[in-house]
Specification:
By secondary structure, the chain is an alpha/beta fold. The protein is built from 8 helices and 6 strands. Helix 4 packs across helix 8 and helix 5 packs across helix 6.
């Protein structure tokens, strides 16, 4: 009997994405994301906001997956693509471009042509939360999505968590037993079949104050590159 044809990872991710976009499991997040999409920010008043859960984006067979906290209210919640349309996106994607992991240095809108060879961006929580602070229950409700996304990407070897929330959410997703390795910028830990790296989140609070500089993020991505599978 002939061996079955290998499954296209993009098919599994497409089915997962459809379920993510349709999710209404967290009433507080549903109310907030939709209210933001209606009230809008003045600078974007003529735009139609996405206002739904946000899926992962990037290579369907990545070796590196970057895990953020959640969509920004007027970034991904507006554009419909993770790390797109805000200052955090600008900072991160510029760094990915310098590292050879993004086709261009900007991430402005969902149809801007950005590609992430070998890399995928996602989030621990898929809906924009009030004050950028999801609850423990909201993170738990989203956890199966991240677990399934990682399972659909069998070539992943390196996970990069942006911030302590994403670091802890990733360890929970991977069922790593406590005591957990401590989060910090450039932290590194074995997590099952993966190497988990940490970076401060590229939020304006961190980048405007110099807590996270381009050189600091470049160093973490250089380390990720060193851990990439050969070939």
């Amino acid at each position: 009997m002939a061996d079955p044809a290998p499954q296209d990872p993009s098919q599994g991710l497409a089915a997962l994405d459809a379920r993510i976009v349709a999710c209404r499991a967290c009433p507080r997040l549903v109310e907030w994301r939709e209210r933001v999409a209606t009230e809008k920010r003045a600078a974007f008043r003529d735009e139609t906001y996405w206002g739904r859960p946000v899926t992962g984006f990037g290579d369907a067979s990545p070796w590196l997956v970057i895990v953020g906290l959640a969509p920004a209210a007027h970034g991904a919640n507006r554009t419909g693509r993770v790390f797109t349309g805000d200052r955090s996106a600008d900072f991160l994607v510029e760094a990915l471009h310098r590292a050879g992991l993004a086709s261009q240095p900007t991430s402005v809108r969902a149809d801007d042509g950005l590609a992430l060879p070998g890399c995928r961006m996602t989030a621990a929580v898929r809906c924009a939360p009030p004050a950028n602070k999801p609850t423990a229950l909201e993170e738990a409700n989203c956890r199966p999505f991240l677990r399934e996304e990682l399972a659909a990407c069998p070539d992943v070897r390196v996970l990069l968590a942006l911030g302590a929330f994403a670091w802890q959410a990733t360890l929970r997703t991977l069922d790593v037993p406590p005591p957990w390795p401590r989060f910090g910028h450039a932290a590194e830990a074995a997590a099952g079949a993966f190497t988990l790296l940490g970076s401060y989140h590229p939020s304006q609070q961190n980048t405007f104050t110099g807590r996270l500089t381009p050189a600091m993020l470049d160093a973490v991505l250089t380390r990720a590159r060193a851990l990439a599978p050969a070939g």
